[in-house]
Design brief:
With 333 residues, the chain is α/β, with parallel strands linked by helices. It contains eleven helices and ten strands. Strands 1, 2, 3, 4, 5, 6, 7, 8, 9 and 10 form a ten-stranded mixed beta sheet that branches. It is globular and about 65 Å long.
Length: 333
């Protein structure tokens, strides 16, 4: 009937107007995700320029620039053990043009020790795991321990006389120390430093018996020169550069067998299509021979994998850190 036809036309018109209204709201987001990348991408590195992590991030950025066909620039924003840089990522626009490169500590360790400026679960989207940096346990000229078991035996025989230097109170090395003390039932004196430079100078001068530090070319040189003795390594497997050094897991300390896991992050609400694309491109870059060679040269190990796997790794490390911190009564700085 004419009335029915008129009603259908009106209804169709209303549907079209409603759909157009929704499109006006949604289309910029969808178009932005589909057109990505349409401008330069910024990667905020949560550490100072010139370090191992910064150098790896820059090498990765160069590869991504070629693969994505757009400039990828590095911005260093160091401070608060990586939290300052990650906070800048959390507060950036979720459009895929700001990413962050950092260890998982700002998400999985720091929030258990002090109030975080961002919510690790709500404000940050894990994108992809990039590498893990092994943590070496080293004897200094002041140490008479022949290996890790001997170190523990000496600590048990003379409680408190073995001094262990870390990069700071509540650092990853401190977490390792507390876990080892708990399992081995020994007392070791913690010597916290604020950074690695003075710590290494004092180690070479024999100001304490043991130190924990991330693996790297400079550390390896001191080991090869006989100035430092490797006792154990925190890593999923032994290092190719130090095949004779057992992991802490092999030595009966699986919970202390920790390493620094690094990855890329994005602001929460970044389109999933963009995160998936970045994940894919980073995995491609990590498979390139020159990137792997650069990582191998610094004793860092490429990881990669899915976004879901990286998120699970962060959650598991956070749970483990929380448990150890509670048990040991560790307080932040």
């Amino acid at each position: 009937s004419p009335l029915a036809l008129t009603m259908n036309l009106l209804f169709s018109r209303r549907q079209w107007v409603a759909a157009a209204a929704v499109a006006l709201v949604v289309s910029p987001i969808v178009a932005s995700a589909q057109a990505w990348p349409a401008k330069p991408i910024r990667i905020i590195v949560a550490y100072p320029a010139g370090g191992v992590s910064d150098n790896i991030a820059r090498a990765l950025a160069d590869k991504l620039a070629v693969q994505l066909g757009t400039p990828v620039v590095i911005e260093n924003k160091a401070g608060a053990s990586g939290s300052l840089g990650v906070d800048a990522v959390a507060k950036a626009a979720p459009d895929g043009y700001t990413l962050g490169f950092a260890a998982v500590s700002p998400l999985a360790l720091n929030p258990h020790l002090s109030k975080s400026p961002f919510d690790p679960q709500k404000d940050i989207a894990p994108v992809v795991s990039v590498m893990y940096s092994p943590v070496l346990l080293l004897g200094t000229p002041a140490s008479r321990a022949t290996d890790f078991k001997d170190l523990i035996a000496r600590a048990r025989a003379q409680p408190g006389t073995v001094r262990w230097a870390t990069s700071g109170q509540a650092s990853l090395g401190h977490i390792m120390l507390e876990q080892i003390q708990s399992v081995a039932q020994v007392q070791i004196t913690h010597i916290p430093y604020k950074g690695g430079g003075q710590q290494m100078n004092d180690a070479l001068g024999g100001q304490f018996e043991v130190l924990s530090t991330n693996a790297g070319p400079a550390v390896l040189q001191h080991i090869q020169a006989g100035k430092l003795k490797p006792l154990a390594v925190g890593a999923p497997a032994r290092l190719d550069s130090l095949p004779q050094v057992p992991t802490l897991a092999e030595l009966g300390q699986p919970a202390a067998n920790l390493s620094s896991l690094f990855g890329l992050y994005a602001p929460a609400q970044t389109p999933k299509t963009v995160i998936t694309r970045i994940n894919t491109e980073v995995n491609k870059a990590l498979a390139l021979p020159d990137i792997r060679a650069k990582l191998d040269a610094t004793d860092n190990v490429p990881t990669g994998g899915t976004t879901a796997e990286f998120a699970r790794q962060i959650a598991l490390e956070s749970e483990n850190n929380a448990r150890i911190i509670r048990a040991a009564g560790i307080q932040g700085n």
